């Protein structure tokens, strides 16, 4: 009995309408001192208020459960993307109710304004849809759904607590992977900023002989087949397949820098997943290596259907470290794991030319055996600072320093190219598009 009373007391809240009505009654009692003709009117008004209050309590509490609510979430959330969340609410009372819904979203979002207001007719079901954008990988815990219900009288509200607690993992960005897949198959990647690459020459992998049509390369005419058929026939070729594509993700302290809520590591991880997806669509093999002061995960290149999910599972818990990358260990790992010439995409960041020069001997040794593509980042804050007009001497100083660092980044790219190492200097936001563009260009040029 005591437990039932406590539940009743804890979940009952007096509404603003009750306090307004109570204030009116107090005003009547005060006026009675000056206007005796009011008589028993204040007492009657207060008694009517108490009766209405009792009726309101009765209609809201006569059912054990006058409301149903549940939260529908994806099995996993996509990092850096807008993820849809849905709350389903049903009114089982025999009258219309007003409802205030508070959803206890994971603490990582730091949201205190997830309030929703509904008006439901008897037996009506409504859906609340909103979106959440996580900026860190890991486990996110949803809490209660708390609903505050008011009857048409509106003097009190009854709280319902729906224990819809759920832990949802946040994986590297995967929402757009289906769109990349569709675009890759239909050859309309330009809609996502991915360029159409003009093919140079042809691969050595023969496909079929077909009739010549206008626009075919006359250099591919098969004269023997033409003589047999009596009409022009041409050879067709396909891209070379089953090439190894390895993404090497640097987890050192240089990758902790944040941009728009995501760290450089998260941008690199999202781009690695997208590149692996596109590579497997092109029937290449995708692999992964992560490193910091030690080698982290090593996923040998495969093109089986479960490979992408395996890569995402590995990247799910990867975090940045506080030490510099051990490039010597990376070189020895690549030599022992990758047995044939492959495309090695190294996601890292250099903040100074001296940092690049320390790693250059190892990069040149890797490039000796594989096609090495080094991806590093522009500092968008420095770029915006360099474009801002200087207002004083201090502003001129900051602008000059920013331009110096920007120039150094361009020098780094030229230094890499001078030693036969491909490079991409990109903003974090354009990383995925730029890396897929480069991969498709290398495929078109038959460098892999």
From TrEMBL:
Transmembrane annotation, as ranges = 12-35, 41-61
Pfam families per UniProt = DUF58 (PF01882)
- Keywords in alphabetical order, please: Membrane, Transmembrane, Transmembrane helix
Q: Record keywords: Transmembrane helix included?
A: yes
Positions of the DUF58 domain: 209-373
Could you tell me which InterPro entries the record lists for this protein? DUF58, vWFA_dom_sf
Cited PANTHER family:
BLL2464 PROTEIN, SLR2013 PROTEIN
User: What's the protein name?
Assistant: DUF58 domain-containing protein
């Amino acid at each position: 009995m005591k437990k039932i009373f406590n539940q009743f007391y804890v979940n009952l809240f007096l509404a603003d309408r009750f306090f307004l009505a109570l204030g009116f009654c107090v005003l009547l009692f005060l006026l009675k001192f000056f206007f005796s003709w009011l008589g028993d009117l204040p007492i009657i008004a207060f008694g009517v208020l108490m009766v209405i209050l009792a009726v309101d309590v009765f209609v809201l509490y006569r059912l054990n459960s006058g409301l149903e609510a549940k939260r529908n979430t994806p099995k996993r959330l996509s990092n850096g993307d807008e993820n849809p969340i849905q709350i389903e609410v049903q009114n089982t009372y025999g009258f219309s109710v007003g409802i205030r819904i508070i959803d206890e979203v994971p603490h990582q979002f730091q949201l205190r304004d997830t309030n929703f207001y509904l008006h439901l007719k008897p037996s009506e079901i409504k859906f609340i849809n909103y979106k959440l954008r996580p900026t860190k990988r890991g486990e996110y815990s949803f809490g209660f759904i708390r609903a505050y219900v008011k009857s048409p009288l509106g003097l009190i509200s009854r709280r319902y607590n729906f224990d819809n607690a759920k832990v949802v993992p946040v994986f590297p960005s995967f929402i757009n992977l289906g769109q990349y897949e569709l675009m890759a198959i239909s050859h309309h990647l330009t809609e996502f900023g991915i360029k159409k690459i003009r093919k140079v020459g042809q691969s050595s992998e023969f496909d079929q002989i077909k009739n010549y049509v206008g626009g075919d390369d006359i250099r591919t005419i098969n004269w023997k087949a033409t003589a047999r058929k009596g009409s022009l026939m041409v050879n067709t070729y396909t891209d070379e397949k089953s090439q190894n594509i390895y993404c090497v993700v640097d987890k050192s302290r240089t990758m902790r820098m944040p941009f728009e809520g995501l760290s450089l590591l998260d941008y690199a991880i999202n781009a690695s997943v997208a590149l692996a997806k596109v590579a497997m669509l092109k029937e290449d093999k995708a692999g992964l290596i992560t490193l910091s002061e030690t080698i982290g995960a090593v996923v040998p290149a495969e093109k089986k259907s479960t490979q992408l999910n395996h890569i995402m599972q590995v990247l799910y818990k990867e975090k940045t470290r506080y030490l510099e990358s051990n490039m010597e260990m990376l070189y020895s790992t690549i030599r022992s794991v990758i047995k044939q010439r492959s495309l090695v995409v190294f996601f890292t960041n250099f903040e100074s030319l001296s940092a690049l020069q320390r790693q250059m001997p190892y990069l040149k040794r890797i490039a000796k055996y594989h096609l090495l593509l080094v991806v590093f980042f522009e500092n968008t804050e420095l770029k915006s600072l360099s474009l801002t007009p200087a207002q004083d001497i201090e502003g001129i100083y900051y602008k000059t320093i920013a331009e110096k660092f920007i120039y150094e980044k361009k020098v780094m790219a030229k230094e890499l190219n001078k030693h036969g190492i491909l490079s991409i200097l990109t903003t974090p936001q354009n990383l995925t598009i730029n890396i897929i563009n480069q991969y498709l260009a290398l495929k078109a040029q038959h460098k892999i």
